[in-house]
Amino acid sequence: MPDPNVAVRPFGYADPDPVVRRVGNRDLFVGNRAAAESPPRSFAAVVSLTADPSAATTHHRPLVDGPGNTPAEFAAAVDTVRERRGEGPVLVNCRAGVSRSATVAATALAAAEGRGFHEAFGVVAEHRRTAVAHPALCTLAVCYLAAHRQ
């Protein structure tokens, strides 16, 4: 019998329908590309991490889902989310809403709340059950947090 607490997503699959998950009671949301094409609600900022911006994108910070991102590119994405959260609800989206968006949102959350990356990613994953961070993005997240500790 399948475990109801385990979410399975076929490799490379991205839901064609909008997927938006709120991270607890925070004004921070993780979503897929379809959610950024026609957001189901109003956001102060839509931070798109895809190669091309979506219709509702207000801040485009393209990242690849794997190695190939510079620390500066990753930091720019996280900093944008951190800055915009003070203005109202923020949607962070990537193609599937699973790796890039979850990692950037978790890193911004960790920095804002003084958490470690893995703890913050766990918080995001509680609400986006299919969230799985690429190891290369995890490395960038940990390095970002080490450089931005106060």
From TrEMBL:
Pfam families: Y_phosphatase (PF00102). Gene3D superfamilies: Protein tyrosine phosphatase superfamily. Residues 72-132 form the Tyrosine specific protein phosphatases domain. InterPro entries: Prot-tyrosine_phosphatase-like, PTP_cat, Tyr_Pase_dom. This is Protein-tyrosine phosphatase family protein. The lineage of its organism: Archaea, Methanobacteriati, Methanobacteriota, Stenosarchaea group, Halobacteria.
